[in-house]
Design brief:
The complex is a heterodimer of chains A (about 525) and B (about 325).
Chain A lengths: L10 H23 L9 H34 L5 H8 L1 H4 L2 H12 L4 H8 L10 H25 L3 H9 L4 H29 L3 H7 L7 H10 L4 H25 L21 H30 L4 H33 L4 H12 L2 H12 L9 H38 L4 H12 L1 H17 L4 H4 L7 H10 L3 H26 L6
Chain B lengths: L1 H14 L7 E6 L1 H4 L5 H12 L2 E6 L3 H11 L7 E6 H9 L3 E2 L19 E13 L8 H6 L4 E4 L5 H14 L3 H8 L3 E5 L2 H9 L5 E5 L2 H9 L4 E4 L5 E11 L5 H11 L2 H4 L9 E2 L20 E2 L3 H19 L2
Parallel strand pairs in B: 1-2, 1-3, 6-7, 6-8, 10-12
Antiparallel strand pairs in B: 3-10, 4-10, 5-8, 5-9, 5-10, 5-11
Classes of the chains: A mainly alpha (about 525), B alpha/beta (about 325).
Chain lengths: ~525, ~325
């Protein structure tokens, strides 16, 4: 498609990308500017870099690798409760880190359910702490995202391709080679890059599950540089390193994810005639559901008692969190939609890179940079909520782009020529063709952003004062005050709210199609 | 619409302070300002006697708090910084941002307090907390030789974690690395902060967790649960003394002095034990709350003086990383 006229004005998208990149690089620059003579790159940093790369690579490969059979099984099978299962599978992704860790260890820890079950059989408890524990936790967080993204790839293959395949008797390996593999080649690099970038900035999860200082990541070193050493130069240097690593991964993904789409279809509901092996598909669905839902079940069980012990303040925090989530979602859509359409033209891959930077940027650096920027103009504390909403939106941007871009690309490919021949202007193409076609993806990305924003502690801890607290912050405060049970109740409330907004927005986007 | 009104009310409530009253801004750590910490009661009690507005600003933890003040430098909004501990004092003094105080009080600290800049408001001993019905080791040596499992905090991201590092260093000096080497197989994991570690301990992930000798008091007083105990160690226990100071550049010097005086008075000190779960720096006339008498009292209090703490920290951290990263 590249190289000829298209019914899209890329300017808004490019501007949005420049804005995001300016914010991320600008905050980094502000931090570096404030630096005094700082420490350089020591041997400890090299080992942190090695561990960070190792765990992020393994986590990305494993999450995406396992997501393929799970998504394939979900794409091929129809069963009661499938939609609810798909929605629930998204939950680990949106839990606050500390809650997810407790939930995971409730199942896989030394005193966890699995160890207890092994104990009944006379076997020793599982040893969860170590590199494998870190990867397990990251797969727990990212398998659902990878599954959703890949499943979406399957659902975007026009139904006619499957019809034709069925008519030609194309099944199993041939089906995989001719239809599924090309789709995966287009989708997978982006999925890998996103997960790699998320895991790159892991800190508390990597440290806790890693079992000690061997599991030191760059993000921990950044935290240490900021708080204990007040070495802003070092913090900026390490943060720049994270950005370079993510940018490299993103560029590699862009390079590899080129490939032809599947062309036009008539938007029939997808029906599959190839049988596959139901037993194997059932195995993947059940295994993934058990792995992802057991820790959530433990969060629910430990939260139920606390739900009735929570002080009213927790509910006030919940209301604040809902507003922050709503604001984040609006900001996100304003940034992501023009960016996705610009990327869809095929000429502005660099826009996507701008979006991905949001993942690589350490929240500490963005927060501190914004703090330095805002301070001469206003009291940062009074802007705590808007800043949190903005940063949450930028953090969610890479996910939204991964969701929106493939569909935007297909829409342009299918309807771009017709729109040009009808002399449609850019705005009406966007409004009358792009938006309606993207509705399911908009619903999904809005739901994901709202849920992420609700669950993420974000930068609120850097700015908050006594009166303003989001739900995740209030949960941390409860834990800090020994009130673990009330905190568990808060976590359950958060889980319910996040799943609720996700469900509403995601469903809203696809009320007329089968998902 | 109702929710919108509530949110708007929350947003404006903070800015709608009476303009005619003087305002004192105190930067402190987040758990101090939380609704379960001392913050709300302290605010009420001080405002009752100062005819001013006390503005408490929470910043993550003690170390992040110092970073914030350094980031803001001389034109910081803060008049008082409350919540640094003895390990941070020397770094704090180096900034030159803090001014001297003129407070005298009858401190109940196990060590003599002579610092001219920082005023202590509470203190505690680090200790390993365990389930009272299980046997506990009585020294680091016994712990290292036994097979009890512990969860500790990372000294690079947590003040208790740093406290443990100095505790071992103060007890064993140059032999500290060999203790850490023997402790390695006892350590289940190292967490970012206190909350994660304590949460995991309550979930049953370890036999003991690094916390304070006062932790069992919370369970006893707030939850009427006597099942937790702190293990007394023969080497003695390292102390954490939490301090406050006024900024040299404050535009409210009298009010700041008034606050520091209030801080060592009964009104403030009676709030501390059952909200911050630490010992008050000055024992209030009403004594300690019922339940505190059940806590262990270490035979020996360990504490590096301020300058030594900074040097010891660097060395101990390198040793800790070297030993446990292998």
């Amino acid at each position: 498609m590249a190289g000829h006229t298209q019914p899209i004005n890329p300017l808004p998208g490019v501007s949005a990308a420049v804005l995001v990149a300016a914010l991320i690089l600008g905050t980094l620059f502000m931090v570096a500017l404030r630096a005094e003579a700082g420490g350089g790159f020591g041997p400890a940093d090299w080992s942190a870099l090695r561990f960070t790369l190792l765990q992020a690579t393994l986590s990305a490969l494993l999450s995406a690798g396992l997501a393929i059979p799970v998504a394939r099984a979900l794409a091929r099978r129809r069963f009661p409760g499938r939609r609810a299962l798909i929605a629930l599978l998204g939950a680990p992704f949106i839990l606050p880190v500390i809650v997810a860790i407790l939930g995971l260890l409730h199942v896989f820890g030394r005193a966890g359910w699995v160890s207890e079950a092994l104990g009944i059989l006379g076997l020793p408890p599982i040893q969860i702490y170590g590199l494998h524990g870190v990867v397990l936790a990251h797969v727990f967080f990212n398998l659902p995202l990878a599954t959703r993204l890949i499943l979406q790839g399957w659902q975007e293959i026009p139904a006619e391709r499957f019809r034709l395949a069925a008519q030609l008797g194309c099944e199993g390996l041939a089906m995989f080679r001719l239809i599924e593999l090309p789709m995966l080649r287009r989708i997978l690099p982006g999925v890998l890059a996103v997960i790699f970038a998320i895991c790159l900035t892991s800190f508390a999860v990597a440290l806790t599950l890693g079992g000690g200082p061997r599991a030191t990541t760059i993000e921990l070193a950044i935290y240490q540089a900021f708080t204990y050493d007040f070495d802003l130069g070092r913090a900026a240097l390490l943060s720049a390193l994270q950005l370079v690593l993510t940018a490299t991964a993103a560029l590699a993904a862009l390079r590899f994810s080129q490939g032809e789409g599947f062309g036009t279809g008539l938007n029939r509901a997808i029906r599959r005639w190839d049988g596959g092996t139901p037993v194997l598909d059932a195995f993947w669905i059940i295994a993934a559901a058990a792995f992802l839902l057991l820790p959530l079940a433990s969060v629910t069980i430990s939260g139920i008692a606390g739900l009735f012990e929570m002080p009213a303040l927790v509910f006030r925090a919940a209301v604040i969190s809902i507003f922050v989530a709503a604001a984040s979602t609006v900001v996100l859509l304003l940034l992501a939609l023009p960016m996705a359409t610009a990327i869809a033209t095929g000429r502005y891959g660099i826009v996507e890179l701008g979006g991905l930077l949001g993942l690589a940027a350490s929240p500490l650096v963005i927060g501190t940079g914004l703090f330095i920027l805002i301070r001469p103009l206003a009291n940062p504390t009074t802007l705590a909520l808007p800043v949190t909403a903005l940063v949450n939106a930028i953090m969610a941007l890479p996910f939204a782009l991964r969701i929106l871009v493939p569909a935007a690309r297909d829409t342009l490919e299918r309807h771009g020529r017709l729109a040009l021949s009808l002399n449609m202007n850019n705005w009406s193409f966007f409004l009358r063709v792009m938006l309606p076609r993207l509705r399911p993806q908009i619903g999904f990305s809005a739901g994901l952003t709202a849920a992420l924003s609700m669950g993420d502690l974000g930068v609120i801890a850097l700015f908050a004062d006594a009166q303003i607290a989001t739900l995740p912050l209030q949960i941390y405060r409860l834990m800090g005050a020994y009130q673990m049970q009330a905190a568990a109740g808060g976590a359950l409330l958060l889980l319910i709210l996040s799943m609720g907004v996700f469900w509403i927005l995601d469903r809203g986007g696809r009320w007329h199609v089968e998902a | 619409m109702k929710h919108l009104a509530i949110a708007a009310g929350i947003l404006t409530a903070t800015s709608a302070v009476a303009a005619d009253k003087p305002e004192l801004t105190v930067y402190t750590y987040d758990s101090f300002v939380s609704d379960w910490g001392p913050g709300p009661k302290v605010k009420e009690a001080f405002e009752a006697e100062c005819d001013c507005t006390l503005n408490l600003v929470g910043v993550e933890d003690g170390a992040a708090l110092l970073s914030r003040v350094r980031l803001e430098g001389e034109n910081t909004e803060a008049d008082i910084v409350l919540g640094l501990d003895t390990n941070l004092i020397s770094a704090a003094k180096e900034t030159g941002l803090f001014g001297p105080h003129s407070i005298t009080a009858d401190y109940a600290l196990p060590v003599e307090w002579t610092d001219t800049v920082f005023v202590p408001y509470d203190w505690g001993y680090f200790a390993f907390v365990h389930n009272a019905d299980a046997p506990a080791p009585t020294s680091f040596r016994e712990l290292a030789d036994g097979d009890a499992k512990i969860i500790i905090q990372d000294p690079r991201s947590s003040t208790p974690g740093l406290g443990l590092l100095l505790w071992v260093k103060a007890s064993y000096g140059d032999d500290a690395p060999s203790i850490w080497a023997d402790l390695a197989d006892n350590i289940v994991t190292v967490t970012k902060g206190w909350s994660e570690a304590y949460g995991l301990f309550l979930e049953g992930e370890a036999d003991m967790v690094l916390s304070y000798t006062t932790s069992p008091a919370y369970h006893l007083i707030a939850e009427e649960d006597a099942s937790k105990a702190a293990a007394p160690f023969d080497e003695g226990h390292y102390m954490q003394v939490e301090v406050a100071a006024k900024l040299a550049n404050t535009d409210q010097p009298e009010l700041a002095d008034q606050f520091l005086n209030f801080m060592v008075s009964d009104a403030f000190q009676t709030i501390i034990p059952t909200t911050n779960w630490m010992y008050p720096a000055v024992t209030p006339s009403s004594g300690l709350p019922e339940g505190f008498e059940t806590l262990i009292t270490p035979q020996k209090a360990l504490l590096f003086d301020q300058d030594k703490a900074a040097a010891a920290r660097e060395q101990a951290l390198a040793e800790w990383l070297g030993t446990l990263s292998q």
